[in-house]
Amino acid sequence: MNVLKEIIKTKRKEVDERKNLFPIKLFEKSIYFNTKIVSMKEYLQREGASGIIAEFKRRSPSKGDINIYADIEEVTRGYMQAGASVLSVLTDEWFFGGENGDLTKVRKFNFCPVLRKDFIIDEYQIFEAKSIGADAILLIAEALDKDEINKLVSLAKLLGLEVLMEFHSPDQLNKLNDNVDIIGINNRNLKTFEVSIENSKAISKYLPDDFIRISESGINNPEDIVELRNFGFSGFLIGERFMKTPNPARACKSFIDELNNIN
How many CA atoms does the CB half-sphere of 26 hold within 13 Å? Predict the structure, then answer.
């Protein structure tokens, strides 16, 4: 069993348990449920935007603990002040050490868009995402069939959320839904967990021109971003590169300052 399949199997059990504890009616009472989102699409297309989607991630299945004691308010505020366009928050607990409360904290202390990064497989999680303050959600093509994607995208749009749809290979692009807001290319091989930005460059030629493109993982220096922009990418998700340092916010600022100097 590859890592993604193992995660999805665990996630199905987790969602079933949460349904019994937290009914959707409870989510609808959240102050965020009827609040208009901050658009990830708009922030990525702003003039002079860095395009950096700075991620808060405590641990991962491939790396283990990365920065388990980092203060989420301090880090994400620092990311935003450094010039990140979007904040990404891992809410998966079992594999990534996150929780829903993390995203709500980030929403409370920041005004830029917040992406909920999780393994969404059920409509229940869409209601949950809206209630905790997310502006956008992630859907992973390899984890869902086309009908599931269509259903989840429709509900997300009904609730006012934006959708980032993630691909790892071109053979999944037939699942792309026209109502998706942003296409993400994950540079991590799901079987070997090796990472290379060459994956984004290789898949870029298969992508429709009318979607915003982001490249995810394996971006190690500003030169990588300059190179990826030549392939039509305007968003760049970076997590471990910042989180593995003693001061992730400072690392993000140094990265964006260097990028601005190149530009």
Answer: 10
The one catalytic residue in 50, 110, 204, 217 is 217
pLDDT tens-place values along the chain, 263 residues long: 478 889 999 999 999 999 999 999 999 999 999 999 999 999 999 999 999 999 999 999 888 999 999 999 999 999 999 999 999 999 999 999 999 999 999 999 999 999 999 999 999 999 999 999 999 999 999 999 999 999 999 999 999 999 999 999 999 999 999 999 999 999 987 666 789 999 999 999 999 999 999 999 999 999 999 999 999 999 999 999 999 999 999 999 999 999 999 97
- Answer yes or no: 217 catalytic: yes
Is 162 an active-site residue?
no
Q: Is 223 a catalytic residue?
A: no
* 55, 128, 162, 240: the active-site residue: 55
For 56, what's the count of Cα atoms within 13 Å in the CB-facing half-sphere? 35
Judge whether 14 counts as a catalytic residue: no
**Is residue 73 annotated as a catalytic residue, yes or no?**
no
List the catalytic residue out of 105, 117, 201, 253.
Answer: 117
What is the distance between the alpha carbons of residues 199 and 32, in angstroms, rounded to a whole number?
Answer: 36
Indicate the CATH number for domain 3-262.
3.20.20.70
CB 124 within 8 A of CB 157: no
Tokens standing for residue 14: 């987790």
11, 50, 57, 199: which is the annotated catalytic residue?
A: 57
Instruction: Tell me the pairing of strands 64-65 and 52-56.
Output: unpaired
Respond yes or no: is residue 234 known to be catalytic: no
166 tagged catalytic: yes
pTM exceeding the 0.90 threshold for the entire prediction: yes
